Amino acid sequence: MDLNIVGLKVVVTAGAAGIGLATARAFQKEGAQVVVCDVDPDAVAEVAEKLPGVLATACDVTDRSAVSNFIDAAATHMNGLDVLINNAGNAGPTARVDDINPEDWDRCLDVCLTGQFNCTRAAVPHLRKSENASIVNLSSAAGQLGFAMRTPYAAAKWGVIGFTKSLSIELGGDGIRVNAILPGIVAGDRQRRVMEAKAQQKGVSFKEIEAEAFSYTSIKDYVTQEQIADQILFITSPRGCTISGQAISVCGDIKMLA
Predict the structure, then answer these.
(1) Contact 94, 104 (CB under 8 A)
(2) Which of 140, 174, 187, 246 is deepest in the core (most CB within 10 A)?
(3) Residue 165 lies in a domain
(4) What predicted TM-score, i.e. pTM, was given to this entire model?
(5) What is the C-alpha to C-alpha distance for residues 123 and 84, in angstroms, rounded to an integer?
(6) Dihedral angle computed from the Cα positions of residues 3, 7, 11 and 16, in that order, rounded to the nearest 10 degrees
(7) pLDDT band at residue 122, thresholds of 50, 70 and 90?
(8) Does 216 qualify as catalytic in the annotation?
(9) What's residue 197's pLDDT?
(10) Exposure pattern of 1-17 as b/e (b: 16+ CB <10 Å)?
């Protein structure tokens, strides 16, 4: 399928690893121009080897001034901006609410929710000039389901969906569509670390936590980063021109979070 995105101008936050890297790679493969940022300077340095031709910059999405400079520089580099992928996030703490360090709560919401506000606020003036403008916010299955011992993360990801729905209404008249992607149990180091932390909290094995997690899904397998990237490419292409305000799950039909 030709998505007709050759030359599309794309920014991906946290684009030097994980879902962000897979998304940046998928856009580049389809002929888009891509600029990424990441908070990890070592990961940023490796982007030139992993994705030749993709500009990578170190940036913390919680730093408003740095975000504004990054977005403006990216738009200047590409001579415009068509797509913002708000992918930056962190896993947050795994603990009962009364054991959570308030600073860990604050940091999780700052990165996962306020970071999206910071990037969107800086990007909208550029996106208004695009003929195929789109914002994709990474939420999670935890944005629609309860997630015991993971309250900061779940609260942030529920907030992302509210942010997305409201932005879709607000920006629709400007021709900017806004959607959220809700990954389920994604293969990779972050998911493994979350499961290991929960296994430790519950005093059970990793395999038991993994089995319980998949007992709540129809498809008994991990979601891949590439599957998430494929969905993002479609909704940001001209073929997705009437898709906006949606919370789109890529989760194997998950019904509950372990």
Answers:
(1) no
(2) 140
(3) yes
(4) 0.95
(5) 7
(6) 80
(7) very high
(8) no
(9) 85
(10) eebebeebbbbbbbbbb
In a domain, 256, yes or no: no
Strand, helix or coil for residue 96: coil
Cα dihedral 124, 130, 131, 135 sign = negative
Q: Does a structural domain hold residue 142?
A: yes
Q: What is the CA radius of gyration of the chain?
A: 18
% of the chain with per-residue pLDDT over 90: 91
**Crossing angle (nearest 10°) for helices 189-202 and 206-215:** 110
Residue 40 counted as domain residue: yes
CA distance 116 to 157: 11
Q: Tell me, what DSSP letter sits at residue 31?
A: T
CA dihedral 103, 107, 109, 111 (to 10 degrees): 180
Catalytic residue among 27, 105, 153, 222: 153
Q: pLDDT-derived band of residue 218, with 50, 70 and 90 as boundaries? A: very high
Look at residue 202 and tell me whether its pLDDT is greater than 90: no
What DSSP designation does 17 have?
A: S
Domain count, the chain: 1
Cβ within 8 Å of residue 72, ≥6 positions away: 122, 126
CATH code assigned at 159 = 3.40.50.720
